[in-house]
Amino acid sequence: MRECRQGENEPLLKSSSARKALTKNIKTINSSTQLRRLDRIFRRRKLTLLGHLKMNNNNLAGHQAFAPMYRLDNAASAGSHQPRPTRRAPGNVPYVVDNLWEWSRPEEFPSRRHCVCASPSAALAQQLGGTSGGAVFTINNLVGARVAQIPQQDARFHLDATSLHKTLLKLLGLAWVGDDKNLDGMLAIAPLWMPCLPRENAKALFKNHRSLAEIEQRLRAAIKFWDDAKLVSSNDPYPFPDGEIFFEADSWDLI
Predict the structure, then answer these.
(1) Among 251, 254, 249, 246, which residue's Cα sits nearest to residue 112?
(2) What are the residue ranges spanned by the domains of the chain?
(3) What is the per-residue pLDDT for 215?
């Protein structure tokens, strides 16, 4: 007896006699062949279902899909991570530059005080990492992320990193800075040079001290970091082929 193809006898099922005949015929089909076919169908449907469940679970968890990003980290750092509650002092730019970047940061951009830095390629992450004996990880499963990128491979290569503190002193006036009579005024604004000056404290300095209030607009115009930085949306390509990526997120995985 030839094997029935799917759908071939569907019209026959409308009569009870046809259903009985079909049932009798099915019993004569080689059971092992039928079981193998059913097993293949089940496995295909199971894989499809599992794929949908995984996608839905990721969406429910708030995972955001970004283009690949890589980070050199301690070899034991694999797994899930959450942001540290403390501010991170910069290791590659002057404190005053970091403070001015945070003071002038647009609200929609991630703060470099709490950010994680990464690279768009594993080779670049390995080259720039600076972690002895570390391993390159893929950053995945970001939740609640704000991601940005600059054209430079590392923030220390940005022009602000080497010029901004000079610009600040120039705007204050070298004569004013070098005059001992202005010692009290210089002490008042000295927190600008401390590590991790909070954003609100920096704003207060510019509001409450005339020497800074008078140069605020010109200093803001001189800061180019945020003009060069670009926000990155999920599923979009990075705007720069080898620029530093930095992000804030509620959680992420190193894989």
Answers:
(1) 246
(2) 10-60, 64-254
(3) 97
